[in-house]
Amino acid sequence: MLKKSAPGALAMCDAAQTAHRLPWAALAAEIAALLRDASVRVPARMVLPLAGGASLFVMPAHDLRVAITKLITFTPANAGTGRATIQGDVVVFDVASGERRLILHGPTVTARRTAAVSLLAAQRLAPNRQGPLLVVGAGVQGRAHLEAFAQGLGVREAMIASRSTESARALARHAQGLGLQAQVVTDADAAMAECPLVVTCTPAAQVVLHSPPRDDAFIAAVGAFTPQMVELSPRLCRLFAELGTVVVDTPDARHEAGDLLQAGLDVATSASLADVVGGNGPAVQGPVLFKSCGWAGWDLAAARLAAGATGTPGMPGA
Asked: Which of 147, 146, 114 shows the shortest CA–CA distance to 294?
């Protein structure tokens, strides 16, 4: 059963409280533990199109102790308006009692679990983990990835590229506040030549990277999660497939990974992060592309950690 402060207690966590429950290193470790947990069940997520190009996501998952549903909206038209593009909650239930135990801030869970998945992939797959780190896209996901890679990999230098100069400067100041050297760059393709670590966290409305990768490159591409969305040019994706290694977050990427699908790649043949964690992943040779599309299992891992029902050895509740 989940840890609880009082019988029937329900904790409602705002953004700051949710983030506090999901420290980067522990969350990456919990994601790895979840991928080794045979009791985890994650049905296909439901995506309902809404007016104006928005979507409603319903994402359930459970293991033997915890059941969750993430209910969020994704509204691309909110970009630049001051309203969040992702809004909603993650509801966490105790399987044994059927009671709600937590309501977590959905956008914070999404940001932190996505960046922690990229961090775990980089820990296992990146040929060169020293940085500098190039962050393309200076929104919520760009900030989360910057923090995760700084804490989880020890990156000390970052370059920020964004279509919004103001947002790029704000993220660079945040990086400097964390003790990193940071600068804004206007040409992301040119910056790739200096950065073995790259994350793309854009709205995925257009290609943002074209240049060939470094031999020791690791790119985590997280912005495109439908067949129509794209961040990386088809040629760049094909170069990774020809010269290096392509890994997807889950097998669901076979019908969601717009970057890879538009490049004409057979996504079904790519190894998944579960393969890597289970020791069945490919031998890393050359540059690595990690394509992340999202999965309710990542939200379940965050809920397990936040609720103290973790499956990570040495953590509370293990």
From this structure: 114
The answer to whether the beta carbons of residues 137 and 201 sit under 8 Å apart is yes
Average pLDDT over residues 289-297: 97
* In the chain, ranges of CATH 3.30.1780.10 domains: 11-109+297-307
In the chain, which segments carry CATH 3.40.50.720?
Answer: 115-294
CATH for 115-294 is: 3.40.50.720
Domain 11-109+297-307 has CATH 3.30.1780.10: yes
* Residue 85: pLDDT band with limits 50, 70, 90: confident
Q: Among 308, 318, 298, 313, which Cα is nearest to 42's?
A: 298
Beta strand pairing status for 157-161 and 133-136?
parallel
pLDDT at 317: 38
Give pLDDT, residue 284.
Answer: 87
Whole-prediction pTM: 0.92
**DSSP string of 143-170?**
HHHHHHHHHHH---EEEEE-S-HHHHHH
